[in-house]
Specification:
Blueprint (H helix, E strand, L loop, with lengths): L3 E2 L11 E2 L11 H25 L31 H5 L7 E6 L2 E3 L2 E3 L6 E5 L22 H7 L2 H21 L8 H10 L6
Antiparallel strand pairs: 1-2, 3-6, 4-5
Helix pairs in contact: 4-5
């Protein structure tokens, strides 16, 4: 069994089990998603049985519930005005058009770095601007970047950083009649700061 599980409640319940990985699942294909949802649940039951047999303290373990759906970490990403790199994430990248920060937390593609050092990188506005498409911003795990940067930027809390940045930029675009690729970065950053966002 490879993977992780969360903290143990006073009642003895584990908060979550992250033990089943289905790398062949294509998150853009409903048929693949359905087959892998079925296979994932089958493997989850096998993982629980293995824990009962081989993990001390889990001999009476029972599965309380499955996740609502299969969790997909990677599907499509944009080619952005700036595609983030693993070097940006691991080297504490700094950007003049930062819309927020995220700790050095990389989890994917065989890399696991937990955010314990205080190191962080900034997320540039340009990573949300797709090439060749006017007045569109892409937030969340589909922002531009390579595999290593994606192993950080796909994390939910990082997606909230780009989501807030994109939402504020869209509002300012409408309010001030600005094309998104001509955004006034100082105006954007000023509003994000007013909302309590840490940019640097």
């Amino acid at each position: 069994i490879s993977g992780t599980w969360g903290a143990i409640y006073d009642s003895g319940d584990l908060t979550y089990l992250n033990l089943v990985h289905l790398p062949e699942c294509d998150g853009t294909d409903p048929g693949s998603m359905t087959r892998n949802e079925i296979e994932g649940r089958r493997q989850a039951m096998l993982a629980v049985e293995a824990l009962k047999r081989y993990q001390p303290g889990c001999d009476t373990a029972k599965l309380r519930n499955f996740g609502m759906t299969i969790g997909i970490r990677d599907t499509r990403k944009i080619l952005a005005a700036y595609d983030m790199t693993g070097g940006d994430v691991r080297g504490q990248g700094r950007f003049e058009d930062s819309v927020g920060i995220f700790p050095e937390f990389i989890d994917g593609y065989g890399i696991l770095i937990l955010p314990t050092t205080g190191r962080y990188f900034q997320l540039p506005y340009r990573t949300m601007l797709p090439q060749g498409v006017k007045n569109l911003l892409v937030a969340g795990r589909a922002t531009g970047g390579d595999r290593t940067s994606h192993a950080a930027t796909r994390n939910m809390m990082c997606c909230t950083v780009t989501g807030q940045g994109a939402g504020v930029a869209a509002a300012l675009s409408v309010k001030h009649g600005l094309d998104l690729d001509a955004m006034d970065i100082s105006l954007l950053q000023s509003e994000l700061k007013r909302q309590g966002v840490r940019l640097h």
